[in-house]
Amino acid sequence: MDLGKQIQSLRKSKSLTQEDFARECEITQTYLSQIENNQKEPTISVLKKISSVLKVPLPILFYLSIEEGDVAPEKREAFSLLEPSIKSLILGFFAV
């Protein structure tokens, strides 16, 4: 699961700088940078704020962060077939 990468990707898709996004999330730019680089794990309250500012429900943010290695080996083939379509649908719905 790469939550930091997904937060960064969604932030950039909305053309928000780290500084502006951090301010809206009521956290420091340094802390946001650490989250995006997977150096710090945000609390659930911070994640709720991040998802709110991104206008993406928290469960969707978690789903978008799932990587193939997070899926049970016997289900990876199905995941790799379905994931691009599901991700595209979700991003189309919640993107800018």
Structural overview:
This protein has 96 residues and is mostly helical. The protein has six helices and no strands. It has helices at 3-13, 18-25, 29-36, 44-54, 58-65, 76-94. It is globular, with a radius of gyration of 14 Å.
Write the CATH fold name.
434 Repressor (Amino-terminal Domain)
N-to-C span: 23 Å
Outline type: globular
Helix content: 55-70%
**Tally of structural domains:** 1
What is the beta-strand fraction?
A: under 5%
What's the CATH first level? Mainly Alpha
Q: Could you say which structural class the secondary elements and strand pairing correspond to? A: mainly alpha
Short description:
This protein has helices spanning 3-13, 18-25, 29-36, 44-54, 58-65, 76-94.
Question: Which helices and strands appear, and what pairs or packs with what?
Answer:
Layout: H1 3-13, H2 18-25, H3 29-36, H4 44-54, H5 58-65, H6 76-94
Helix pairs in contact: 1-5, 2-3
Protein name: Helix-turn-helix domain-containing protein
InterPro entries: Cro/C1-type_HTH (IPR001387), Lambda_DNA-bd_dom_sf (IPR010982), TransReg_Diox_bact_type (IPR050807)
Domain HTH cro/C1-type: 7-61
Record keyword descriptors for this entry.
single chain, 96 residues, mainly alpha, 434 Repressor (Amino-terminal Domain), 6 helices, globular, Helix-turn-helix domain-containing protein, DNA-binding transcription factor activity
